[in-house]
Amino acid sequence: RETYLDRLSLRYEREGEPNMLAPVDIFVSTVDPMKEPPLVTGNTLLSILAMDYPVEKISCYLSDDGASMCTFEAMSETAEFARKWVPFCKKYSIEPRAPEFYFALKIDYLKDKVQPTFVKERRAMK
């Protein structure tokens, strides 16, 4: 199977009309921070929030069945970082959208990035 994003855009996004894409709820669950590190959970949430979908039509929920204080504190930090990361991803079409994987890439991150503010904002993210 393959997804054709251009076809979806033609069908649901028409200029001058309200966006017709359906609202999406995404649930993420975790139990044990020793088996599911909060960093991985945080990266999952950040990549979901930064996906190419209208921000007003996406909701992300986290269920921590283990009620871990470590996970709670990590997700508080993740929420703070998301205020910067999500707009950065959308503005510059960042891929991959999980910060851990994006910053681990060993590529020329300036390739195809012509906006002068990109380098400054990328450094601020790091």
TrEMBL record:
UniProt-listed InterPro entries: Cellulose_synth, Nucleotide-diphossugar_trans
GO CC annotation terms, alphabetical: endomembrane system; membrane
GO molecular function annotations of the record: cellulose synthase (UDP-forming) activity
Source domain of life: Eukaryota
Keywords: Cell wall biogenesis/degradation, Glycosyltransferase, Membrane, Transferase, Transmembrane, Transmembrane helix
GO biological process, one term: cellulose biosynthetic process
Compartment list: Endomembrane system
Chain sites annotated for binding UDP-alpha-D-glucose: S29, K35, E36, D65
Keyword Membrane listed: yes
Pfam families, A to Z: Cellulose_synt
Membrane topology: Multi-pass membrane protein
Protein's recorded name: Cellulose synthase
